[in-house]
Specification:
CATH topology of the largest domain: Rossmann fold
Strand order of the largest sheet: 3-2-1-4-5
Structural class: alpha/beta
Radius of gyration: 20 Å
Strand content: 15-25%
Largest sheet: 5 strands, parallel
Number of helices: 8
Shape: elongated
Number of strands: 8
Number of domains: 2
Order of helices and strands: EHEHEHHEHEHEHHEE
Length: 187
């Protein structure tokens, strides 16, 4: 039997629609989006939205449900089950993989994170690289949320790097529209 966990807040509606599952698979979708709910009802997926709103709340609930399901299975049942995760969130992938290894269950990550590296990157270097990537996006006037979505970054990491750029005076608000930003050297 396969237990498929779907971080719909991360992969979106189209990602949920693309999931191929058999009738014997248990597909658990975590989202607060009504369109995702409708797809889940049509495909007979379990839709969960009862977690608090906020950063990483769906991720915490995914891990909580994973551990709860594993704990409810006998040793024999665990040996024939597979736990699959649909997400591109590195932190969630790490937590999911750790729990599966800890409980000695078969697991798979269906969607690989956009940027994976075999080597460990120091947080300072990772942040510097993110700052450079953000800075490069502001060669034209745009909103910070547009840039964050283009770079597919979690809000917390993106905000830290963005604030560094603002403090350093490398980007600034566009006077006509306070929601848009551009490199400080433009205009």
């Amino acid at each position: 039997m396969r237990f498929i966990f779907v971080d719909a807040e991360n992969i979106g509606l189209k990602g949920v629609e693309a999931i191929g599952a058999s009738i014997s698979d248990k597909v658990i979708v975590f989202s607060k989006n009504e369109a995702v709910k409708e797809v889940c009802e049509r495909k007979l997926f379990l839709y969960i939205s009862s977690y608090p709103s906020g950063s990483n709340q769906a991720d915490f609930y995914v891990i909580g449900n994973l551990v709860g399901i594993i704990a409810s299975l006998s040793e024999k049942q665990r040996s024939v089950c597979q736990f699959i995760l649909y997400t591109q969130d590195n932190a969630l992938v790490s937590a999911f993989s750790f729990q599966c290894k800890l409980h000695k269950v078969n697991s798979e990550i269906a969607l690989k994170p956009a940027v994976q590296s075999q080597q460990v990157i120091e947080p300072e270097k990772l942040l510097l690289n993110l700052e450079q990537r953000i800075y490069a996006q502001f060669n034209t006037v745009q909103t910070t949320e547009t840039v964050r979505k283009k770079l597919k970054q979690p809000k917390s990491e993106f905000t830290k790097a963005l604030n560094q750029l603002i403090r350093a005076g490398k980007i600034r608000r566009v006077s006509k529209n306070k929601k848009t930003w551009v490199r400080a050297t433009h205009m």
